[in-house]
Amino acid sequence: MSSTPHQGEQALKPVNTISRRFPTFRSVTALMMREMSTTYGRSMGGYIWIVIEPVAGIILLTLLFSAVLRTPPIGVNFAIFYATGMVPFMYYNSLAGKIAQAIQFSRPLLVYPAVTLIDALIARAIVTCLTGLLVGYVIFFSIMTLNETRTNPQLLVIGQAYLMATVFGLGVGTMNSFLFARFPSWQTIWSVINRPMLLISCVIFIYDDVPQPYDDMLWWNPIVHIVGEMRRGFYLNYPGQYVSPLYVYSVSFILLTLGLALLLRYHRKILYEW
Q: Is residue 193 part of a domain?
């Protein structure tokens, strides 16, 4: 009779407890593997090309702009100046675009209860961020190894620039993931809106050289602050007094919070009706 309570306790224990632990971790890991194999291919060569492509693009555009602009606005090397603007811009743009397409990309798997919309967003964000950081490292390391840049990288400031680009990309991407699902035409509209961003984000020039009243208008572009913070991380003599991380974080968290709230509120309609 003394064994009866013990047997009752065993009966109350859930079956296969281990398999139910960390469902989000398993879902995100599976989605990341699917992302890697689908986007970059199953071979290492496919992933290497993802790194080589932006590096080659930076080199080509640097040669073109160097032929027109002999001296960069700050520093002595145009390649590192251009990279400090283009790398954070590409990082943000890739992250925002990947997050915005996360639902469409993972829709066949989202019908399973174990996979949620948040899992799809997290998986794409991790893969894209890691790839973007690797691309940035290769670009900066290559330029500083092959050229006399006369820069003194400040890792904390550079890290701040990457963090600003990350949260802003997450905010824009999450908000667009809902808008793309709810209003399919918004994807085309956003593509049109996004085309001039390279020119108005101070990638090939510095904010300090923009005359009024255009500088006041450009200040509201969060990417301008991200690029300015990245350049502060490489050029010790560049003050970048206009840079406001608080503004970037505020806009980013508003977009991220609103986007997540809308996705959670309408997730069933996103999957089964829209």
A: yes
In a domain, 40, yes or no: yes
Q: Report the alpha-carbon angle 55-92-161, nearest 5.
A: 90
Distance CA 23, CA 253 (A): 26
184 is a domain residue: yes
Number of domains in the chain: 1
Quick one: DSSP state of residue 211? Answer: P
Nearest to 88 by CA among 148, 175, 161: 161
E strand spans, 123-243 = none
Q: Is residue 159 within a helix (H) or strand (E), and if so which, with residue range?
A: helix 155-182
**177: domain range?**
22-272
Residue 215 amino acid letter: D
Average pLDDT value for residue range 195-223: 94
Structure tokens at 53: 């492509």
* Per-residue pLDDT at 22: 47
The radius of gyration of the chain from alpha carbons, rounded to an integer in Å, stands at: 23
Does residue 16 form part of some domain? no
pLDDT of 2 strictly over 70: no
pLDDT (0 to 100) of residue 41: 62
